[in-house]
Specification:
about 0% helix; about 50% strand; about 425 residues; mainly beta
Length: about 425
Amino acid sequence: CGEEMLEGWTFNLWNTTDGLPDTVIATGVTGECGCYTFEDLTPGLYAIQEIEQECWFPTTDLIQFVEVTAGENFEVWFGNVEGGSIEGYKYCDANMNQEFDDDECGLEGWEIRLYKIEETEETPLIGPEYMYTFTDEYGYYNFTCLEPGMYRIEEVMQDGWHNSTAWYYEIEVGPGENLEIDFGNYRYGDIFGLKFCDFNMNGEFDECLDWPLYGWEIELWSADEYGNPIELIDTTYTDSWGMYRFEDLAPGHYVVAEVLKECGWINTTDMEVHVQLGCVEEVEVNFGNYRPSDISVKAYDYEMGEPVAGLVLSLWEADEYGTPIGEEPIAEGITGPHGYYIFPTYDPGYYVIETEDGRTEFVILRCCTAYVVFEYYDDYCPPTENHGMKATYAKFEGICIELEKNQTLSFFLIITI
């Protein structure tokens, strides 16, 4: 009938007692023809036992009985069928095309179950028992040595995920057949992040240095696979923590972008970032900016009630401890008739203001104008003939208030000596 004869199979020949196998009296192994002959047997009842092999399933009884009579030859046939297998991948189908593409990743730790479907006269029956396995780090799974027949294979869904392919299949495994069944899944996700004043201009949010920025506009665009914006989808603004979030976004390509404000702001991170969703719960995109700002100095005689004009000031770069750096100041100035002098548009960093009478003040310039006040009193002996006042110091940093049109701001400054 064209069926293959099996070489290398072992058979035991037993004598019997009271119709039951008793002792193994001979052993044989099939040759190329799939046959073996036990010769010179005395008449009597014998049992022939087939020794099973891995991943093969018998289609006949494993032990068959033969009544041997004198001068007769007897044939006993044993049938076997090779087992099959099912293998496949559990993958994140980011583009939901039901195919495991080269740029998509397998999902580790997902449970795959396999049920045997029993054929009955009325309807196929799926039993309560099942085999199971878990996908490896590449999303791969397999079931081997399966008896030929009908099976139901299914994935066990996890919270937050959706299937792009069917979540179960009913398939027939043939003898020696290897079937491949893949399961594709995707998930909705969020894009969130922080908008911050990047004090050291390094493109990263440093907890001890940088400040969140409130009220900045963040845009969300649909995009092509190369990250080119297509259409504006949504707009939001950073909250009091400097945070923003776009929630429950379908799988796909997006561009999240900051809208740069006027007044000299400069970005330290990319203003547009390409994000692909479908395999992760959330993606963080932060935006860093800084703004060159002024250092405003005021000198005032509070007893005389008049500004200190003509005071020579020097501006030094400094380290984080307030120690001047370099052999010479980076700028110099003299207070004007109203006692003010402004050192304009310096990058965020550490600075020291030094007066001609040797007073110094440490300044941390962030993303807003820093204000320094030198207070003078009449009981001080000056180092020069120009000033007869004693200085105390006050400093105001990071006062950064942006007003909308037609808004006003009022505040009181109380200095206690």
